[in-house]
Amino acid sequence: xxxxxxxxxxxxxxxxxxxxxxxxxxxxxxxxxxxxxxxxxxxxxxxxxxxxxxxxxxxxxxxxxxxxxxxxxxxxxxxxxxxxxxxxxxxxxxxxxxxxxxxxxxxxxxxxxxxxxxxxxxxxxxxxxxxxxxxxxxxxxxxxxxxxxxxxxxxxxxxxxxxxxxxxxxxxxxxxxxxxxxxxxxxxxxxxxxxxxxxxxxx
Length: 203
Fold this sequence. Notes:
mainly beta; 4-stranded antiparallel sheet; globular
């Protein structure tokens, strides 16, 4: 097995990728660039809704793609085409949370909840920059500046932040409850026995 270079119809920098299968994959990037893989080739997906830099894409379980980026840009793509959502803070990631609802997170504690083509602000008890989000055990977990970790169950937020204060950049979780968080200075956290445990550095 090996990685093969794929011909793309763009030279734009790409920052995020998501899909529902090997035949439906979308990547997004600078200047509003969106490209779609159909299982055999990549094609440019024209959209005139925004030229903002796009930084996150989520393949919605109900179909379609939700995209987020600079200036609070949110986009929704389904069979009818592209729709532009709200604008506001810089957005860095999109993930599915409780009930299959999508959430976009970003600068200064920005947290938007999707209603399909529309997005609404969801209060969160922090003003720290948030960089990563994932669905963990049916909850939305977001991570960010100075060790920020917050968990949302659909009604309440729980603060699971770390005392180390190191910046956390990304989180991954599977349906079995396994989860990892990574960040600056080699920080790696693993979810074990209902808590986040820091992995020792490799020497």
